[in-house]
């Protein structure tokens, strides 16, 4: 019996050590780099194909969760959705934002709805965003241009040197409809967008960002980006470090929950052992 008690105590110690501050999370979250202003600008202009893409994005990052998506930043008018509940905030410091765990995903609108990312949309809550992703949450950055303010989410440094188009150090068309939805993009709910006039502003060097974990491309960029930057291609304009359809961080057990589960299983195992011992004695 003492052997099984020792085992149970050992499992409990391991579980609570896992739950200690600074321990690795059970599930890492998803960060998506978007080189488009279709949501922040063009849908607000009433362009139907841009709104189609917007709704596909909400479905992809919202999944089947009933939780709303937090849309953070100032777009071209109020950003709404017909497919998933969204809540608009100017910054994460805005009144009423509350705990980030209340949202299935966080979408950061490009600065003013167009062209450049704006890490200032996080306000003073960058640490909360990091914790949200660490717990399994999903964050999408519109018009990501390699701004160092996002490095804590993306990893690496000097990432603008591997971004083509607006705000990046690499050349290429700053405004193009030459993107192509990939097979993986179709699997994640996207379709080839119709002509918007300017769907893509940024393109991401897949060798560089792939080394940072961004290996899933949902839209291949206009071939002009690779042609203008030999050795940096291929390029993606919607690049992720995980599946878009994640359901956010709401379904990820906290470390303390994992600890209780492990202790519970250990206890059940011990009770099962005691019961089997008693049955063996009475059978003699």
Question: How would you describe this structure to a colleague?
Answer:
By secondary structure, the chain is α/β, with parallel strands linked by helices. It is built from 9 helices and 10 strands. The protein folds into 2 domains: 2-19 and 254-283; 30-240. Strands 1, 2, 3, 4, 5, 6, 7, 8, 9 and 10 form a 10-stranded mixed beta sheet that branches. The longest helix has 29 residues, at 255-283. Mean pLDDT is 82; it is low at 1-27 and 247-284. It has helices spanning 2-19, 38-42, 48-62, 126-134, 151-154, 183-187, 206-211, 223-228, 255-283, and strands spanning 30-34, 69-72, 86-89, 105-108, 138-142, 163-165, 180-181, 202-205, 216-220, 235-240.
Question: What are the salient characteristics of this protein?
Answer:
single chain, 284 residues, alpha/beta, 2 domains, ten-stranded mixed β-sheet, 9 helices, 15% strand, disordered C terminus
Largest sheet: 10 strands, mixed
User: Please, how many domains?
Assistant: 2
Distance between the termini: 19 Å
Radius of gyration: 23 Å
**H/E element string?**
HEHHEEEHEHEEHEHEHEH
Please state the overall shape, judged from the principal axes of the Cα atoms: globular
Mean pLDDT: 82
Helices and strands in order, then pairings?
Elements (H helix, E strand, L loop, with lengths): L1 H18 L10 E5 L3 H5 L5 H15 L6 E4 L13 E4 L15 E4 L17 H9 L3 E5 L8 H4 L8 E3 L14 E2 L1 H5 L14 E4 H6 L4 E5 L2 H6 L6 E6 L14 H29 L1
Parallel strand pairs: 1-5, 2-3, 2-4, 4-5
Antiparallel strand pairs: 1-10, 6-8, 7-9, 8-10, 9-10
């Amino acid at each position: 019996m003492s052997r099984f008690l020792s085992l149970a105590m050992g499992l409990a110690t391991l579980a609570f050590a896992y739950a200690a501050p600074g321990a690795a999370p059970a599930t890492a979250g998803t960060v998506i780099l978007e080189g488009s202003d279709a949501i922040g600008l063009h849908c607000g202009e009433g362009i139907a194909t841009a709104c189609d893409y917007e709704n596909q994005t909400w479905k992809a990052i919202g999944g089947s969760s009933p939780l709303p998506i937090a849309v953070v930043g100032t777009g071209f008018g109020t950003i709404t959705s017909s497919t998933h509940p969204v809540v608009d905030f100017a910054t994460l410091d805005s009144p009423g934002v509350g705990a980030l765990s209340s949202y299935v995903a966080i979408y950061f609108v490009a600065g003013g709805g167009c062209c450049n990312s704006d890490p200032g949309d996080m306000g003073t809550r960058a640490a909360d965003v990091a914790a949200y992703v660490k717990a399994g949450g999903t964050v999408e950055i519109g018009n990501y241009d390699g701004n160092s303010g996002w490095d804590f989410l993306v990893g690496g440094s000097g990432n603008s040197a591997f971004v083509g188009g607006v705000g990046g150090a690499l050349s290429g068309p700053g405004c193009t409809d030459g993107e192509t939805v990939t097979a993986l993009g179709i699997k994640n709910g996207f379709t080839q967008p119709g002509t918007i006039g300017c769907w893509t502003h940024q393109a991401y060097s897949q060798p560089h960002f792939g080394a940072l974990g961004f290996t899933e491309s949902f839209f291949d960029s206009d071939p002009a980006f690779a042609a203008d930057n030999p050795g940096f291609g291929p390029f993606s304009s919607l690049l992720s470090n995980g599946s878009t359809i994640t359901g956010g961080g709401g379904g990820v057990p906290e470390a303390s929950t994992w600890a209780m589960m492990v202790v519970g299983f250990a206890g059940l195992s011990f009770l099962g052992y005691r019961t089997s011992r008693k049955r063996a004695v009475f059978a003699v």
